[in-house]
Amino acid sequence: MTKGYEGPGEAAARLTGRPVVAGGTASGSPAEVTLAGGTPVMVKRGDAPGAVRAEVAGLRWLAAADAVRVPEVLGHDERWMVTERVPTGPAGPGAAMRFGHALAALHAAGAPRFGTPPPDGPEDAYIGLAPMRNVPGTDWPAWYAEHRVLPYVRGAVDRGTLRPAEATVFERVCERLPDLAGPAEPPARLHGDLWNGNVLWGADDVVRLIDPAAHGGHRETDLAMLRLFGCPHLERVLAGYEEAAPPAEGWRERVGVHQLFPLLVHAVLFGRGYAERALEAARDALAR
Which of 22, 137, 160, 272 would you call most buried, defined as having the most Cβ atoms within 10 angstroms of its Cβ? Predict the structure, then answer.
């Protein structure tokens, strides 16, 4: 091992105060490590400034809602985070329905304003590997345009993923957002990066959420992201949600508007294919 290097095993032992008996010798992240007594944990490294602090604050803010379950944070510093390991199993329709109920309760826990970061969380946070600023605002259409659409349009243009002329399509959507957004709603407590990979179907038939990009936002954004990359038993999840807290009429027609944010993030990170999907969603919104 390189002198001065700390791997997942050393980080887990230091942050939990318990010896490591298995795992943690490789440099991958996240890594599974077993602590003394047979307790399995996950160890994740965050190299970007503030990334670990943002994730820990997000997990704790979601947990504080006492709605959707999240893995417990067992220790952290500025670079490493140790959480409980969630044994996973097959996705079931009953768990999906309960997840829908719990997601509605999470959103109903609310946030002080749109864009509010979790308590103790930084303004400069992340969604996946992309920077994401949590700047509070009171008007969702204006806030969404300024902080969740246009920054990533500019980023995609700078990277050559979007052509400058194509940026005007998103600018037109932003101008029309007051009409496209549907009825005004109070800020919801969002997971913020709710794609299928961040939904863990527990072996105990209870869903946990991981890797949040938590902030105050519009609840339809989480629902739209669940649809973006597919989710097992999605219609059961949505049925549970609608049973607990029905979204405003016409929410399914607004999915594309809310998907602009994750699609543009992916366009910045992963290229032209996502830019084309974002353009298609934007043009569909303008055709409404």
Answer: 137
